[in-house]
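> example.struct
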């Protein structure tokens, strides 16, 4: 007996289809960085992960603040520069895509939700696992010999999901009676996690304990930890340590303080403890990082 009788296969409609990856970059710019610009026959996304960056696309200039993303269409001249106030971290990915929605996105800036930011972080992580990054040759992605199974497909799926989520958000905001695609619970989670994040940032120069956070916000440790993990994808103290090290990298690139001074400012018990934490997260010592910045951007300590 034919067990499939009466069933009809439904072909899935692909509203966004990434056909190829061209480049993946995660740049840590000095505050005076300027790129001369380029144009090419594929799409590109620029996302301000930390700090601010100024992007020129055609005749328009856009200020990207943290959490904002811009879609750069093919064959349009564009460039990027830091805002000259602080260093910035910018994620850039270029790709070929088949979709009727792209005109809706071209040259526009979008503020990403926490869910979308998680997709960006996942793309960065999968990119590092699938390819030799940073790219040695600007024009050619090199696959890693030890890359995880399905890594490139994961990048494609995350990128397609990101674009679909952005379009859904755009459609929801322009539809009558629908100004937010997030559920009430998600919005509340974001509010609580955001309050924790604000405390972490306010105490980046110093120290803050979980107990102090719970006392300040009036929520239990287990609840706060679960909400923060749900929104940001890591524990509170791990994120706090990451914030401190990112601030340390800024200060090193600003070129005005010694490693010992940075260690003290950020509340580490000793320069040795700071260097150990820095090496764990950056995979190089503070001194090695300083040297790499000089070699990359031609800066020197005055």
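> example.seq
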């Amino acid at each position: 007996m034919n067990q499939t009788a009466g069933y009809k296969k439904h072909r899935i409609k692909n509203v966004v289809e990434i056909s190829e990856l061209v480049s993946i970059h995660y740049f840590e710019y000095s505050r005076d960085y300027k790129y001369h610009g380029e144009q090419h026959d594929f799409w590109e996304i620029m996302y301000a992960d930390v700090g601010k960056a100024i992007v020129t696309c055609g005749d328009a200039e856009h200020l990207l603040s943290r959490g904002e993303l811009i879609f750069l269409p093919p064959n349009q001249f564009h460039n990027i520069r830091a805002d000259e106030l602080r260093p910035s971290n910018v994620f850039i990915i270029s790709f070929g895509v088949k979709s009727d929605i792209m005109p809706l996105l071209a040259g526009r800036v979008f503020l990403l939700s926490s869910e979308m930011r998680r997709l960006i972080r996942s793309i960065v992580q999968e990119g590092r696992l699938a390819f030799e990054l940073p790219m040695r040759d600007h024009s050619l992605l090199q696959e890693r010999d030890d890359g995880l199974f399905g890594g490139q497909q994961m990048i494609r799926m995350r990128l397609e999901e990101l674009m679909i989520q952005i379009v859904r958000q755009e459609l929801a905001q322009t539809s009558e009676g629908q100004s937010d695609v997030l559920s009430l619970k998600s919005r509340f989670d974001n509010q609580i996690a955001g309050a924790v994040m604000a405390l972490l940032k306010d105490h980046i120069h110093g120290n803050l304990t979980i107990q102090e956070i719970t006392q300040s916000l009036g929520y239990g440790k287990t609840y706060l930890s679960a909400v923060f993990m749900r929104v940001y994808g890591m524990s509170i103290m791990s994120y706090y340590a990451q914030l401190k090290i990112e601030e340390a990298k800024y200060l090193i690139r600003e070129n005005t303080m010694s490693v010992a001074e940075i260690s003290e400012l950020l509340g580490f018990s000793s320069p040795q403890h700071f260097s150990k934490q820095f090496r764990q997260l950056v995979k190089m010592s503070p001194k090695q990082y300083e040297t790499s910045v000089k070699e990359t951007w031609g800066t020197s300590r005055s």
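> remarks
The mean pLDDT is 87.
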